[in-house]
Give the backbone structure.
Amino acid sequence: MNAYAFFSRDFPCHSGSIFLQDGDTAYTYADLERETARYARVLAGLGLAPGERVAAQVEKSPQALFLYLATLRAGLAFLPLNTAYKQGELEYFLGDAEPRVVVCDPKSQEMFQSLIAGKAGVHLFTLGERNEGSLSEAAGKSPSEFATVPRSGDDLAVILYTSGTTGRSKGAMVTHGNLTSNAETLRLHWRVTGQDVLIHALPAFHIHGLFVALHPLLLAGARILMHRKFDARVILADLPRATLLMGVPTFYVRLLAEPGLTREACARMRLFVSGSAPLLMETFDAFRARTGHTILERYGMSEAGMITSNPYDGERRGGTVGMPLPGVELRVVGPNLMPMPFDMPGDIQIRGPNVFKGYWRMPKKTKEEFTEDGWFKTGDVGTWTWGGWIAISGRAKDLIISGGYNVYPKEIELALDELPGVEESAVIGVPDVDFGEAVVAVIVPKKGSVIDPAGVIATMKEQLANYKAPKRVHIVEELPRNTMGKVQKNKLREMFG
């Protein structure tokens, strides 16, 4: 069924319960039903066909969540765009996905008008983080009832763009069935109930904040405390009235830096979840010692939602991402798909109702990423450990995860190589206490050229999302290569890590 219909099936049972607390403003589940109806009315009034795309680059707000859920409710496909994306990146996404509706922050209206200029039939709306803009204005004038558009489990619900190893982003097609199966599994596995209160400090354009931290709560009728950004002191002050926190490792590192993080401060908390990047054992152990709580680490990706999780009951092993979730099959294989024995690394492949439909308008790439027997190649390298836990030991696709965001070096290298005076470049991830991994660029200048590292960083911040921009730039005479001429990034990591 339509994912919104699935999420809202029990809304009448807790219509008076608070769904979301945004500062001093509270929205009940009845309010959620009415607001999503109003936004869905606006979208439906544009005469769009089921499955057409609604792209949104907006700041986090209750209205941003209403828009997402209304898009599902109207039978359309949602395209969330990172608020850090710059004009060049956005131009590619809008050109590739061809959305019929584009929603942007009022401050970005002029830029988006130029981006959609010449594109027939595209509707542009604005939506600000304080409920201002043409979309919220139109929704406020719309009726508060709407019949959810029927959709099947295999119909497109969301397109999530993931960086590509060749520099070209791929649009992962997530279906209504993917969303509903994963939501129900997480609700049950993490024991989410109507008594839970979640601190939501994650971005609302990312799978972690948009799916994992929202869908199970909707099913359970739980409450969300919305934070526009992560501020360790503010989060710490909210812990006594919450039961759940979902975050990236950076959250826990910064909380540990606060003297007020004590067992007493966490006395009401039921569960701390970490994902989107590896959690260092140092952080895992320090958090347990300070709070008495063992962080539950899990593993997921845009193409499959959540794949594995440490158990709610029983041992949560630091350095692992737990076991496959119910309904998810996972195998670790070597050459010729031979199963790897315990403690031997191999390629992680998965299948299940959570696995996406394929890449948007990339049938060849989709075929390449699935085995002949239907398993999706995650690109991650992992190991079965004793008892059936999975440990992620590497990333076959050269991925960097910085602050919970995926960064592919090739995209940055292509941009660096276009700069005046740059002969060639290599981008690596190095360990970083705050971000997990920091993006570092190594540049070989052209003969006679002088490269200013600070200038390179500033230029990259203008061209790319800030999280992709190198934190440091090193200038070298040549890049280390093997006998086949391939850059040895492991040696660069040793040199500059």
Observations:
- The chain has a mean pLDDT of 94.
- The chain has three domains: 3-151, 197-395, 400-496.
- The longest strand covers residues 422-432.
